[in-house]
Amino acid sequence: MARTGPQKIPGASQAYFYGTGRYSGSDMEVNCGVAHTTEGRTVPTYGGGAQAPTVTGLPDFKAKKIRWYQHYDVDESARALMNKLGGVETNTANVFQIELVGTCDAKNAKTWGGKTAGVDYIYWPDAPEWALAEVAWLVRWLHDYHGVPLTCVKDWLAYGKDSRRPGVTPASYGASPARMSMSAWRTFTGWCGHQHVPENDHGDPGSMNFARVIALAKGDTKPIPTAPPKKEETEMTPAQEALLKQVAADLGSLRKDVAELKKGAALAPWTYKNAALVAEAKKTGAKVPDMHGRVQHIEQMLEALTKEN
């Protein structure tokens, strides 16, 4: 099978290229991709190529870029998947393999060996948008020059607890419901994770948002919706301060009026013009305040304050 299309990824380092050595692979025509995570913070040695993927992506936090290191030609089989005797082909099944430096382990979601996620390493299930966009660039390039479909599997289980596989932690490891059957794998095209490949146990890249990678590869540049920023507290204007003082004064006056009406008798809970209060006021000669008018006045001032704010 001939290798067609460009075989070297633009801008990728060839410093750790194993395709011409002891572990060179077989010719194929890629039509699917598998994403892995290295579970480390540097580019692995891969045993000199014995377990290498097609390419490794190393995050550059300062530049907000992924530095790509290519290990095999695009249409050459890599070696990052387990391939058991008597089953299906994995590494040689027209699959392009990406290893992303970082972790998918939920235990390392915030810190890892004294390092901080998002600063010193990437926890790929919470990867920043720039990192997903860098992966999307490679996914798009493989689509444009090698026809790998811009699609991915639906379920990416967490490498930790996951409600879709209760009672098993990490949920994505082993014989999970996300793992493909051999027949499904034979006809698969598009993108999946190591956790989806048959004959394999690994659960990487966990619950990475690969659907977002595909969306970015298709040209979706809209940012991921986030919670609205909290409104910053600002100093009140003199007019607002005056309104608040007036509201406080009117509330104090209203409380006094209520206390006056209740004085000397256990009255029913009052409403703006409670009939029982009116009757009691007639007996005692007490003044019946216009509660409704007062409340309306206070509401008008509060509305004015809200508009100014």
Question: Which SSEs are present, and which pair or pack?
Answer:
Layout: E1 32-37, E2 55-60, E3 65-70, E4 95-100, E5 111-112, E6 115-116, H1 129-146, H2 182-186, E7 190-193, H3 210-217, H4 238-262, H5 275-284, H6 291-308
Parallel strand pairs: 1-4, 1-7, 2-4
Antiparallel strand pairs: 2-3, 5-6
Helix pairs in contact: 1-3, 4-6
Structure in words:
The protein has helices at about 130-145, 180-185, 210-215, 240-260, 275-285, 290-309; strands spanning about 30-35, 55-60, 65-70, 95-100, 110, 115, 190-195. Helix 1 (about 130-145) packs across helix 3. The strands form two sheets. The chain has a five-stranded mixed beta sheet, with helices on one face. The longest helix is centred in the last third of the chain and has 25 residues, at about 240-260. By secondary structure, it is an alpha/beta fold. The chain is built from six helices and seven strands. A hairpin with a 2-residue loop joins strand 5 and strand 6 (about 115).
